[in-house]
Design brief:
Elements: H1 2-44, H2 48-68, H3 72-77, H4 83-111, H5 130-154, H6 163-196, E1 203-211, E2 221-231, E3 234-242, H7 258-264, H8 281-296, E4 302-306, H9 308-318, E5 321-322, E6 328-329, H10 334-345, H11 349-369, H12 374-386, E7 391-394, H13 397-403, E8 419-428, E9 438-448, E10 455-465, H14 471-474, H15 477-480, E11 492-499, E12 505-510, E13 518-523, E14 526-535, E15 540-548, E16 556-561, E17 571-572
Parallel strand pairs: 1-4, 8-16, 9-17
Antiparallel strand pairs: 1-2, 2-3, 4-7, 5-6, 8-11, 9-10, 10-15, 11-14, 12-15, 13-14
C-alpha cells in the first residue's frame, strides 16, 4: 500500500510539474511571437535601438519557453498516451521559436547596425555600398537559420494533438515560411546589389520599358529603352532609345530555341518590339542585349525590365515629377497619361517616344537624387517584382544563378506536389495600343474525373473590352491600328497561350465564342494551348483550358498571368466532371 501511495503521489507531482511548466511556457510563447512582428516593423522603420530593445525581450521569452519544455520530466511526459503528443508539439514549437529568435532575428538586429532602409537611398546619385557589404554576413546567417527553422516547423506532426495546438502549428508554419522567403530575398539582394552597382568595377545595363497597352507575354512591347551605367555605387542614365531606332534584322540575331521559334516565329529574334513575345525573360534579355550591341556597340552586363504600372508605384515613393509644359506625373495619373493620354496628344510616334523618354528621365533623376521615401521605394520594388513587372537578367552565370527561381527572373512557373501551376500569357494581335481597354479575369480549378485518380486541372480565362462603343472613330488610328494588320478598328485581338505543368496531358480548350479554334504545342516540356480572341467594344469572351495533371496530387492549382494594366487576382472555380 505505501508503494501504491508513493507512485500516486509521484504521478500527481509529475502532472503538476508538467502542468505548471506548460502553463508558463504558453504564456512565454504568447508573449514572444508578437514581438517578432514588432522587431520587423522597427527594423523597417530604421529604428535599430528600438529593435535591439524589443529583441532582448523576445529572446528572453523564447529562451524561457524552450527551457520550460525541455527538461527530463517534460520529455518523460511525452511518452504518456494521449497527453504525450501534445507535449511533443509544444516542445517543438517552443524550440523553433527559440531558434528563430536566437539564430535569425538576432543577426538581423545586428545587421541593422550596418544597414537600414535608408541605406538604399541614393545621395547625389550614389548608393553607399559598404553598409550593404558589412551587413551581408549577418543577413546570410539569418537566412540560413530561417531555412533550417522552416524545415523543422514543416516536419512537426500535430495531427494527434488537440485542435488548439494544430492551429498554432499551422500559424507558426505560415509565419516562418513567409519570413524565410523574405530573408532569402534580402540575402540575395545584398549579395547581388554591390556587384551590380559597380563595387568590383563599372557595369552597363540595358533597361526595357514594356508597354502593356500593346501586350506581350512578358508584359508589353518594349517601346522605350535606356542604358544605365553603374560604378562604385553611382548610377547614371547615359543613353535613351526608342524601338524605332532599331532595324528589322534579316534573321534572328541569336539561335532561338526550336520550341520558341515554333510558337512565336523568327520575328522574336528580328524585331526589338517582339523580344518579349516569350514569357521566358532570359531569352528576351539575351536577344535584346544582342540587338543593342549590334545597333550601339555596347555589350551590356545585364538587362532590366519595368513598365508604367511599376513607374506609378515608384512615384508613391518619390512624389510627383515634372515632365515639361507645366505637367506633372503622379502615382495616380501615370498609367493613364503614359498609356492613353499620350496617344491622343501626340500623333507622331517619335513625339510619343520623346514624351516617354522625358518621363523616364524625370523619375530616374528624382530617384538618383535621393528625393524619396525609402520604405515606400522598397515596397514599390517588392510589389512590382511580385507582379512580374520588375525583371532582372545577368550576363554573369554566378549572378543569374542567384536570381533563378525568384519572381525577378521571369521564368516559366514551376509546379510541385503541393501546387500545379499554369502560365497564362497574352499577346496583342491588333498591332495597336488597344490593350489599355482589356480587362482579364482568371479562374483555376481541379476535379478527379477518372478511375485512376489523376486530377483534371483547368483555367477559365475571361477577356472583356472596356473600349468606348465608338472606339473605331473616337480613338486615334495609332491606338486602334486603323485596320493595318487586318483587324477592324475598335476590335481588340488577343493571342492567348496557356502553359500547363510539364508532363501534363493537354486536353485542349473550349469556348462558346463563334468560330473559336485552338492549337496545341510544347515549349521546353510545357504543354501549350494557343487560341485567339476578338473583342468588340463592351464584349466579353470566356475560354476554358483543361489538362490532365502529370501525377496524383492533393494540393492547389494556381496560375500566373501576363502583367497588364489590369492584372487580376486568380480565383477558384468549381469544376464538375
Amino acid at each position: 500500500m505505501p508503494i501504491v501511495v508513493g507512485v500516486a503521489v509521484a504521478l500527481v507531482a509529475i502532472t503538476a510539474w508538467i502542468g505548471i511548466r506548460g502553463f508558463l511556457a504558453k504564456g512565454e510563447l504568447e508573449a514572444a511571437v508578437p514581438l517578432a512582428g514588432v522587431v520587423q516593423s522597427e527594423l523597417i522603420a530604421g529604428d535599430a535601438a528600438a529593435a535591439q530593445k524589443t529583441f532582448a525581450s523576445l529572446d528572453q521569452h523564447a529562451s524561457a519557453a524552450a527551457s520550460l519544455t525541455s527538461d527530463p520530466i517534460w520529455r518523460f511526459g511525452e511518452i504518456v498516451p494521449f497527453v504525450g503528443p501534445n507535449l511533443t508539439v509544444v516542445r517543438e514549437l517552443a524550440s523553433v521559436v527559440n531558434q528563430v529568435s536566437g539564430q535569425a532575428i538576432k543577426p538581423l538586429v545586428s545587421a541593422a547596425g550596418h544597414l537600414d532602409v535608408g541605406s538604399f537611398k541614393p545621395v547625389d546619385g550614389t548608393i553607399q555600398l559598404q553598409p550593404l557589404m558589412d551587413a551581408a554576413p549577418d543577413i546570410s546567417a539569418a537566412a540560413e537559420a530561417l531555412a533550417s527553422a522552416n524545415d523543422r516547423v514543416v516536419a512537426i506532426d500535430a495531427s494527434a494533438s488537440i485542435p488548439l495546438l494544430q492551429a498554432a502549428a499551422v500559424q507558426l508554419q505560415d509565419a516562418v515560411l513567409e519570413a524565410n522567403e523574405v530573408a532569402l530575398s534580402v540575402d540575395r539582394a545584398v549579395q547581388l546589389l554591390p556587384a551590380m552597382l559597380g563595387a568590383d568595377g563599372a557595369r552597363n545595363y540595358l533597361v526595357l520599358f514594356q508597354n502593356p497597352a500593346e501586350l506581350r507575354s512578358g508584359g508589353g512591347i518594349p517601346g522605350a529603352l535606356a542604358l544605365v551605367h553603374t560604378d562604385g555605387g553611382r548610377i547614371d542614365l547615359v543613353q535613351q532609345a526608342s524601338s524605332t531606332d532599331f532595324p528589322a534584322f534579316e534573321a534572328p540575331v541569336l539561335d532561338v530555341p526550336t520550341d520558341t521559334r515554333g510558337i512565336y516565329g523568327d520575328t522574336i529574334g528580328q524585331y526589338i518590339q517582339n523580344v518579349t513575345l516569350t514569357p521566358r525573360f532570359p531569352i528576351t534579355a539575351d536577344l535584346a542585349r544582342e540587338m543593342w550591341k549590334r545597333q550601339f556597340g555596347v555589350d551590356v552586363d545585364g538587362v532590366l525590365s519595368a513598365d508604367p504600372v511599376m513607374l506609378a508605384y515608384l512615384l508613391e515613393a518619390t512624389g510627383p515629377v515634372d515632365v515639361g509644359a507645366g505637367e506633372q506625373l503622379t502615382s495616380e495619373n501615370a498609367v493613364r497619361v503614359l498609356l492613353s493620354d499620350v496617344y491622343a496628344r501626340y500623333t507622331v510616334p517619335s513625339d510619343q517616344d520623346a514624351f516617354f523618354a522625358a518621363a523616364a528621365a524625370a523619375v530616374f533623376s528624382k530617384l538618383s537624387s535621393g528625393q524619396l521615401d525609402a520604405p515606400k521605394l522598397i515596397s514599390a520594388v517588392t510589389r512590382a517584382g511580385a507582379e512580374g513587372r520588375a525583371l532582372i537578367w545577368s550576363a554573369r552565370p554566378e549572378e543569374q544563378t542567384l536570381l533563378a527561381g525568384t519572381t525577378l527572373a521571369g521564368e516559366l512557373p514551376v509546379s510541385d506536389s503541393d501546387t500545379q501551376h499554369f502560365g497564362v500569357y497574352l499577346n496583342d494581335g491588333t498591332g495597336s495600343k488597344m490593350d489599355y481597354y482589356l480587362t482579364p479575369e482568371l479562374k483555376v480549378g481541379q476535379a478527379v474525373c477518372r478511375n485512376d485518380g489523376l486530377v483534371t486541372i483547368a483555367t477559365q480565362l475571361t477577356l472583356t473590352s472596356t473600349a468606348p462603343a465608338d472606339a473605331a472613330t473616337s480613338l486615334p488610328g495609332y491606338v486602334t491600328g486603323a485596320g493595318a494588320f487586318g483587324v477592324p478598328p475598335g476590335i481588340i485581338r488577343t493571342v492567348v497561350r496557356i502553359y500547363g505543368p510539364p508532363g501534363s496531358v493537354n486536353l485542349g480548350a473550349t469556348s462558346p465564342a463563334e468560330g473559336f479554334a485552338m492549337y496545341l504545342a510544347e515549349d521546353d516540356t510545357y504543354p501549350v494551348t494557343i487560341f485567339t480572341i476578338d473583342l468588340a467594344p463592351g464584349e466579353s469572351v470566356t475560354a476554358t483550358t483543361t489538362m490532365l495533371a502529370p501525377a496524383r496530387f492533393a494540393g492547389e492549382v494556381a496560375a500566373v498571368i501576363t502583367p497588364g494594366i489590369n492584372t487580376p487576382e486568380t480565383s477558384q472555380m468549381l469544376m464538375t466532371c
